[in-house]
Amino acid sequence: MLRFLLTRLALIIPTFLGVTLMTFAMIRLVPGDPILLMYGERTVDESVYQKLKAEMGLDRPILVQYASYLNDMAHGNFGKSITTRTPVLSEFVTLFPATVELSLTAMTLAILIGLPAGIVAAVRRNTAFDHTVMGASLTGYSMPIFWWGLLMILTFSVWLGWTPVSGRMAVKYFIEPVTGFSLIDSYLAGDWSAFKSALHHLILPACVLSTVPLAVIARMTRSSMLEVLNEDYIRTARAKGLPPWRVVGLHALRNALIPVITVIGLQVGALLGGAILTETIFSWPGVGNWLIESIRRRDYPVVQGGILLAASIVMIVNLMVDVLYGLINPRIRKGH
Amino acid sequence: MTAQVDIAAAVGTRAEHKPMHPLAEFWHYFRQNKGALAGLTIIVALALIAIGADALAPYPPAEQFRDALLRPPFWADGGSWQYVLGTDDVGRDMLSRLIHGTRVSMVIGISVIALGLVVGVMLGLLAGFFPGLLGIAIMRAMDTLLALPALLLAIVVVAILGPGLFNAMLAVSIVVLPHFARLTRAAVLTELAKDYVTAARITGARLPRMMFLTVLPNCLAPLIVQATLGFSTAILDTAALGFLGIGAQPPTPEWGTMLSDALQFIQRAWWVVTFPGVAILLTVLSFNLMGDGLRDALDPKLKR
To answer: Among A139, A172, A316, B15, which residue's CB has the most CB atoms within a 10 Å radius?
Structure first.
């Protein structure tokens, strides 16, 4: 197991270096002078220009720049935002819980609905239920979620007036951030109306964000279940006279879950991509919204640092999924 | 087997067991998948619309009718047949813009896949034929690209190159490229272990011949499936970039850009928000349906 873990860790290092190389090169690949670009229409004072150039290290040889960039990263120094002058890392840390709260809720929804839907569709193969689930899942998988979000807002916020259009909580509430999760914080503060407000704000974006993972999980669960249900040991279990729920729920599901877990892990990255769109639509104050805003403002240090941080988190999650996968499936662990 | 011959004899036809032509065999399997056929039909229709956009669209896509702002579609109150699907905030005909948007999306899909496929296959072939340092370097680079979520990677590229439709397309081809490279490499490695490749090598086939004529044609099946599915990714992601305001710029009638233009009218004019999305969904869905059908028809494991 340790060996497996170490191999996985060793494999992630070149990938991580590749990503740092990409974010490092990013600011230097932008056509034109990055500092002039960042200032856009405004004119830059020569002394400010030189100061910025020195601050960003653009006056040193490229290899030295990269080495110092890596060194900075290792010390948690991701540069400062040009517009707010706050360190990128602290901005990220403030905003990240909002994205995690949204993504976790979306993933929970996707698993809670997608898994049972896939299992039932596989057991009742070729019934109307199966066809409905698979049709819905293919549609969900093909859904442009930025449009889907707009439709949901149009239906539930504008026409029905059930949920608010944007934000995380009504403005009248102020909850001291402890965990950064609005649900947990308002619960800890014992403020029920704030908790309700947070839930109200969360539910629609979470539903929108869960669409694609839900579709993928339902599809994967179904096909994986179908494969497993044909195995000999399932026939044996049935022949032993075990009740159907035991055969499906215990014997089949345990083995069918292995590919599903991989897919869930792979969806984490996709979830972050989806979060960018969902946060933009719902003005959700998370990392995705922040990244897009900083691209629009040409705040390059934020874009650079934000992307590296986001990518690192995706890589760490993927590594964790890999390890988990090895834990539940000895064939993977021993195979390599 | 005997039963089959008996029936054939009884019907009076010759029981000939000639293997089907690969194309005929493919069509035989593909035809059984109703969803895939539906997808194919819609795709053909979309392609025709894209080609004939100039003739089909009632008005030029950017023409503004200043006296007809935000007109609803013909069946709604205040709508007329003059603007079948209504007009947008500056009085452009929705239907005409959607029709021209079809052309934009088809061009996006074709260019993105063509670029991603050519570069990805080349890299995959190289990585498969030279599994040493070159292969490792290529695959690590691909892993790096795959480490970023697709949309985030596209955003990175656009942030570097600057907003615009062309750069967005370039960004999305970089997103789809690693999938083609990985698939090609995997297929190449499988094929290289087979006897016919050894035979070709012994007869003295040179490297380019080995790569493109001997091995590549046998790796095509998964690539075709991936290209079809990639088509939907291409359209979806380019539309997403357009929606975020960093893809196609107005007044290009790209569906995602149309949506982002329409955002502020969401409460007043549902049609400007609804139709471009329906168009994206329908197109992406058809390509996914066809991709699934292709996979089932081309996958030898599922045949039997």
So the answer is: A139
Rounded to two decimals, the pTM is 0.85
Q: Summarize pLDDT for B196-252 with one digit per residue, the tens.
A: 999 999 998 898 898 899 899 988 888 988 899 899 999 999 999 999 888 888 888
Look at residue B4 and tell me if it is in a domain.
no
Distance from CA of A137 to the nearest CA of B (A): 11
8 Å CB contact of B151 and A318? no
pLDDT higher at B2 or B126: B126
CA of B195 vs chain A CAs: smallest distance (Å) = 26
Phi/psi at B87 (5° precision): -130, 165
- The answer for residues whose C-beta is within 8 angstroms of residue B56's C-beta and 6 or more apart is B49, B99
pLDDT of B240: 93
Note whether B83 and B261 are within 8 A (CB): no
- Per-residue pLDDT of B123-171, as tens digits, reads 999 999 999 999 999 998 998 888 888 888 898 888 788 888 999 999 9
Are B288 and A291 within 8 A, CB to CB?
no
Burial A222-244 (b: 16+ CB within 10 A, else e): bbbbbebbeeeebeebbeeeeee
Q: Is residue B214 part of a domain?
A: yes
Please name the member of A21, A23, A270 whose beta carbon is closest to the beta carbon of B149: A270
Average pLDDT over residues A119-131: 92
Could you read off the pLDDT of A267-310 as tens digits, one per residue? Answer: 887 888 888 899 988 888 899 889 888 887 878 788 888 888 88
Q: Considering only CB atoms, which chain A residues are within 8 Å of B245? A: 296
How far does the CA of residue A13 sit from the closest CA of chain B (Å)? 10
Select from B152, B245, B280 the Cβ nearest to the Cβ of A272: B152
Q: Where are the domains of chain A?
A: 88-334
Considering only CB atoms, A18 lies closest to which of B35, B144, B151, namely: B144
Of the partner residues B236, B245, B270, the one whose CB lies closest to the CB of residue A144: B236
Q: What is the CATH number of the domain that holds B135?
A: 1.10.3720.10
The structure tokens listed for A51 are: 């100061």
The alpha-carbon gap from A289 to the nearest alpha carbon of chain B, in Å, equals 10
Judged by CB atoms closer than 8 Å, whether chains meet at A142 and B281 is answered as: yes
- Percent of chain A's residues with pLDDT above 70: 94
Locate the chain A residue with the closest alpha carbon to B137: A14
Residue B15 lies in a domain: no
CA distances from A10 to A17, A121, B57, B158, B160 (A): 12, 40, 57, 31, 30
Cβ within 8 Å of residue B188, ≥6 positions away = B124, B125, B127, B128, B129, B215, B219
Fold of A88-334: MetI-like fold (1.10.3720)
Range of the domain at B159: 45-302
Q: Is residue B174 in a domain? A: yes
Asked if ipTM goes beyond 0.90, one says: no
Q: Tell me chain B's radius of gyration from C-alpha atoms.
A: 24
Give the B-side interface with A, CB within 8 Å.
35, 140-141, 143-144, 147-152, 155-156, 158-162, 232, 236, 239-240, 243-246, 256, 259, 263, 266-267, 270, 273-274, 276-277, 280-281, 284-285, 288-289, 292
